[in-house]
Write a structure and sequence with these properties.
homodimer, alpha/beta, eight-stranded mixed beta sheet, 47% helix, elongated
Chain lengths: 906, 906
Amino acid sequence: MPLSDQAGLRNDPQMTKYVYDFSEGGMDQKDLLGGKGANLAEMFNLGLPVPPGFTISTDACRAYLAEGSEPAGLADEVTAHLTALEEARGKRLGDPEDPLLVSVRSGAKFSMPGMMDSILNIGLTDASVEGLARAADGDERFAYDSYRRLLQMFGTTVLGIGGELFAEALDALKADRGSDDDLDLTAADLQGLVGTYKTLISEHGGRDFPQDPRDQLDMAVLAVFDSWNTERAVLYRRQERIPEDLGTAVNICSMVFGNGGDDSGTGVAFTRDPATGAQGVYGDYLVNAQGEDVVAGIRNTIPLAELEQVDRAVHGELLAIMERLEHHYTDLCDIEFTVEHGKLWMLQTRVGKRTPEAAFRIAHSFAEEGLIDLDEAVDRVSGAQLAQLMFPRFDAHAERQLIGRGMNASPGAAVGKAVFDSPTAAEWAARGERVILVRRTTNPEDLAGMVAAAGILTSRGGKTSHAAVIARGMGRPCVCGAEEIDVDTGRFTAADGTVVEQGDVISIDGTTGEIFAGAVDVVDSPVVRHFEGDAAVEDDDLVRAVIALMEHADGVRRLGVRANADTPEDAARARRFGAEGIGLCRTEHMFLGDRRELVEHLILADGPEQQQDALDALLPMQRDDFTGILEAMDGLPVTIRLLDPPLHEFLPDYTEVAVRLAHEQEHGEDTPRTHRLLAAVKRLHEENPMMGLRGVRLGIVIPGLVTMQARAILEAAAGLVAAGKDPRPEIMIPLVAAPQELELVKAQVVAVAAEVEQETGVPLTYSVGTMIELPRAVMVADQIARSAEFFSFGTNDLTQMTWGFSRDDVESSFFSTYLEHGIFPVSPFESLDVEGVGRLVELAVQKGRAERPDLHLGVCGEHGGDPRSIHFFDAVGLDYVSCSPYRVPVARLEAGRSASAGSASA
Amino acid sequence: MPLSDQAGLRNDPQMTKYVYDFSEGGMDQKDLLGGKGANLAEMFNLGLPVPPGFTISTDACRAYLAEGSEPAGLADEVTAHLTALEEARGKRLGDPEDPLLVSVRSGAKFSMPGMMDSILNIGLTDASVEGLARAADGDERFAYDSYRRLLQMFGTTVLGIGGELFAEALDALKADRGSDDDLDLTAADLQGLVGTYKTLISEHGGRDFPQDPRDQLDMAVLAVFDSWNTERAVLYRRQERIPEDLGTAVNICSMVFGNGGDDSGTGVAFTRDPATGAQGVYGDYLVNAQGEDVVAGIRNTIPLAELEQVDRAVHGELLAIMERLEHHYTDLCDIEFTVEHGKLWMLQTRVGKRTPEAAFRIAHSFAEEGLIDLDEAVDRVSGAQLAQLMFPRFDAHAERQLIGRGMNASPGAAVGKAVFDSPTAAEWAARGERVILVRRTTNPEDLAGMVAAAGILTSRGGKTSHAAVIARGMGRPCVCGAEEIDVDTGRFTAADGTVVEQGDVISIDGTTGEIFAGAVDVVDSPVVRHFEGDAAVEDDDLVRAVIALMEHADGVRRLGVRANADTPEDAARARRFGAEGIGLCRTEHMFLGDRRELVEHLILADGPEQQQDALDALLPMQRDDFTGILEAMDGLPVTIRLLDPPLHEFLPDYTEVAVRLAHEQEHGEDTPRTHRLLAAVKRLHEENPMMGLRGVRLGIVIPGLVTMQARAILEAAAGLVAAGKDPRPEIMIPLVAAPQELELVKAQVVAVAAEVEQETGVPLTYSVGTMIELPRAVMVADQIARSAEFFSFGTNDLTQMTWGFSRDDVESSFFSTYLEHGIFPVSPFESLDVEGVGRLVELAVQKGRAERPDLHLGVCGEHGGDPRSIHFFDAVGLDYVSCSPYRVPVARLEAGRSASAGSASA
């Protein structure tokens, strides 16, 4: 009979039920019982050996937080369940003779840093500690060690006393005994420490340690409730957008001890290797120990396989349970277990975390075994994981000397000379050196050095620090908050004493957070080698998994995937990576390099004639550019954006020229050219160039520019058609805010097309569309759709204008503060701001399609390669996303995930 | 019997009726008959002496333009109406014996430059010209002069021949005759000229001049239709947002001649003085002349009153008709009339244009006379007119020497030394001189000079030229396109030969377009003197009218009017001008002047302590600032915006410091201070400061700033309460994009308020709200409204972000091109872009009020003082608008107009 039935508390149908025996729950009840409680109940009901216990629901926590006091009826329910538990175990909580001890653990729906974790050994008092010793065959050391642990946990987490006070008392005792090992302390030592701890509690906790076991329990439960609102938990929820009102459950579980002798022990295990995904259980076992000892690493664990030698029966039972759990959850599970005098107890299970490689191999393997279908398999991997698998990595077989670890803030492997300030980084990089910028923290003044560095390493700050935010934005590998290293001026010292001086080579792994001395060999990802057509990797288990899941994703996805590519080489790579066209071909790089002089002529032209001369000289070059790209994407659409950036970007910097002129004047060497250049730069200088004369505005102020570019595109297309090819240019007008702008420019394009058709005799197929990247364009998208055959959402600029911040300026100056405050959970340039920018995208889609039902819709901002954003774009009905060539597989996978049934959980 | 009944053409009910006799129309049919035709019909049906005729409807024009050919049935209808007309007049069109002649005039619903105006004397041929001479008692000179005018008008407007060809032939003939007066040409001369003109037509018009009168008529009608699509007309419609598909009507009217002797003549008249609005008719009469002669000014006209001496009967009849028309239209009418041998003919009437002064006086007078009610009177004046009446003006009694005219591009009177280039203007202004910048045209390089100048004068370009757009944006008086003056390097020459050299004083009137040599005395507007409380002007007719209409507007308006004011002086003036509070008190000027050093300390601070020192020093100064303003607005709300601009605005310009350092380094004089300053300026330098670290972002990155400002405001309020005053501060957080930003900053404000209440013992009343000036804020306005007690729309920034252009940069660089192309009809910074920005405002109102029904809503961008925008803000339900103190009366009036019945026609 389930314990709850014995409790007989369900008489009043009006009263909310707050407490659930493990027998009453299940894995689907995470909302009510939290993750830990739901999984304990699931194991209990599978008949697995779970120490009996019960869960106080999140309802109770919410009621407590709302009312500010324990909800009515909760105490009675706890009493009833506790009584039932005592009867089942044949012991009473804190009984001086043979006490029942319990653990109290928090367990919210989502695991959440900053919340109280657990208090063990509740039920120990001055009286019952002796009973525990007796019950443990007189092991007083064990009993007092358990008691002092309770005092320590209770004092810090329930009464809010600084943990260092307890640690100092323990250290002082050890120093007094001339040892630095807890195990050297005797029972008497620990008994003395208990006294010290109780005094500490009385002095700093505002009360004596409660000698009533039930008081201990009740206070611990409320402390768990209160910990829902610790600053760190609140911040974490804000950053992760976890609702404030979920509340946490509390699990109360009878204690079992793995430290009762050599027939006892404790361990953690995974049903598969969480690092590689290889089949076969994987775990560690520690004889005669408690769970926290495994984590603390005070003794060496043994591999799980060796448990067979220690206790064949337990080992066999454990393997059977793990197989059952994996089949039951149809996923990799991790577990915690304890063996108490030869009896196996399951303390926890959950679907285990895993590396990206393991995620792919496990999902593929489960699908091959028929345990899950391919939709489910694709749902279990993610684009973010695939992206990590595509970074170059340190060669697994290469020698390496690990000298520290930090947070894996921005993935990828980087090798370079350590430099300790930004100007040096910029200077060394400029002369061709690869450098790793090492700083305690970075700030906006370090920007130039960060741009110059191959990788960034800091000793302070988390994943939302300036260094982390900027590095991710730039795609630079970054390890941050590596507190083990001590960064000084011009050197850092690792925990093992290794000193790295300026110029010494180091290697950092932004995917794992590892720091190595010297250069570690970097190898290409086998996944990339596969996409690049390297047949040698096709037998690799990971590559096989990727191929299988990508094939399925491609089969089910609705959303097309194109690439952003400006050169024939990029276009060809994008095609190998599965791009179905080019969504954004920028033309501005075509105005740089050896063409800069012509562009300067264009800008400094005296009148329309000189301007036209410059344009005429650019035309054949542009035509060659477009011929190459259209040829590389033969048969697929190529969206070409007409010139977008402000003209001054093609001229030298204003301050630079002004300073140069000042120098020249000092020496009487100022030339008319410098004066003229300064005047031109000054004329084109804009306070806010992002919001200045650019995009379609250039096309209207200098109509010859549009004509030249349109002619270059269409002549290139005509030439290819004549050569039997199938070019599909789509001409895209940037920065349109009003329908009239597009109409004016489109008329020019159409006129040029008619001319080219007549001149070449080749009928041309092309379309004209626009970028939607200004809020104004969204508001009049219906009117714009009258002339636009397609929209491409430029979500970078749309994000800038919607939020009113320029990416270049603000990521560095205040994004880390904003991320810390949870104003946004992730930079809106990394992942689309669905609430704000996303609503504008949706509005434009609705308005555009209402006017022109067959309007073709895509996105070419960087969000096109962002997994979270792709699901949104799929949901609002875009036709395709476009992203950098390396992101194409990621986008294909996420588009497949979005389309498959699992999209709801994305 | 009306002519149309005789025509008997309404047999087929399916056939659209295209032609309407004057008897069939009326003043309400402007859509169908155009303005001119509708008013002719109205007069005809009033029984006034209108020469018989008919109107071809806009339906016919639309059908012609759609089909590209004359619509079926039109020719027959014209024939029927023409026949009826011939019968009524007893003459046949072009009859060689005694020809009926007609005029053909365009007449669209709105008067429209660029369309064909009129062709007179249709019906004259080689044969009928003789008949005309005979009918005119043998006056051959009159007959051939009429014929050559027909040839000239027909040749240029119907056949598209360049007018200069005809003018040159006439000039050659006059030169040959040694005269420069047409009147010296004999009948024989003119007969010869007719021959020359016919040859011109044959050679350049692609055909001979049609000798069939009906061909003349039909071709003239189609030419009017075609003129709907001249480039200039299309551009005008695009700029004025007049629909493309209205079409024009064509009026065909039997000719009457005022040049048949001394018992004939022609005149124009107004029922009141259109310049001042004074009662009594006002007009000019020219004996023995045709209408075009009055316009050409070839002889001196006589005042209308003197017509009484010339022909008492006609004079009396005319006065009676004018009185009748004014009562009938209940408005000022202007008319054109002709006297033919003692018989009065009315050729045209319309509601007359008038000056702003006349508009007020006439509307007031009509209301006083009980002809219209006050709602109607208020509807007949406008805020734009009131604004013009408030500019300082040239003293009406001052001496002046008019030397030229241009377009009245930006209103106001300006006196200063003429300068001819922008650097000189800036230099002279910097040393305290008042200058007028004179240029052929301006371009972005002239910006500094335009800012420095008191007024701007150009000889080229219209009301959408660079000079005009920028001047209006800056509120500088501007006369543009003054083609009469000849601008050279360093001087200009007026039409009368006056030469203005650099440094000579001139005066320009941007309200009238007049240019004067020397300084003309400038006087304050009596309207402003009234608002400022000057009782001496209260008997002024204009002031009486303004008072009456303003009282009515205030009585009916729903919308509140506040002022933007940053100083106690401005606040007091705003109150005198009728402001009901301050809608925007900017705090940035409080960081300038003698406080700049403290602010520099704040910005360059080494760590939080130095920062706090600077803030502490600023606190008492800020408190004094707020005390003054809250006191000036005692009892009324004062919305104070926390610091908004980027910090680098308080530091010197980056390029300037860089150049200074370069100079110092050249001389080995570089100081640590310059290096340090350059580093700070560089650190704070932003590529796009408009989109950088500003507004609420500053408050989050430097929390002490918010605390200091909030404390200064609340301590000021507490002090005033203690002194028995009633301060009502509203604290406004700028540039909010996300609800979390507001929550964070609001929490700081609330905490400070609690402290101040505790410290002072004074209970405080204040509110906290936000500006809505980013599209993101609009999209999440409901969430923001949870913490915001009010929204104030910052439509300047909202316009910038929505369109993605920065006002400083783009008005100068491409707005004139955009206005020319009609991409917008008026700068969206002048008048709210209702379609784009307006929809966002509306969305935020809906979302905000849905979350918080009592959310207080206002606008504090410059649009708050723009007449057109005010109607929109009223319509979407804002509670108030806020504008500069001088604009407060304008806003009050427009808010009244919006509320009154006439708002529909605003």
